[in-house]
Amino acid sequence: MAFCLVFIFGQESSRDQPASEVKYALIGAGIGLLLSFGFILVKLHLIRKQVLDTEASGLQMRRTEGIEVISEDD
């Protein structure tokens, strides 16, 4: 995105470019930001889900092990 902004605003004669090029560059940058933000949200959700699943399975295994030990003593 920084390259697009430098490319658009860094040129001395912006009168030669039609306004549609600037519009399309900004639309493309916006879509890119939206996709990257969505990707980051999905990755954070997957990490959080994996952590919660790992904690839940760890607790379930501990409970199962505790029940087995109690049943063996009886």
From TrEMBL:
InterPro entries: DUF4514. Keywords: Membrane, Transmembrane, Transmembrane helix. It comes from the Eukaryota. Pfam families: DUF4514. The chain crosses the membrane at residues 24-42. This is Uncharacterized protein.
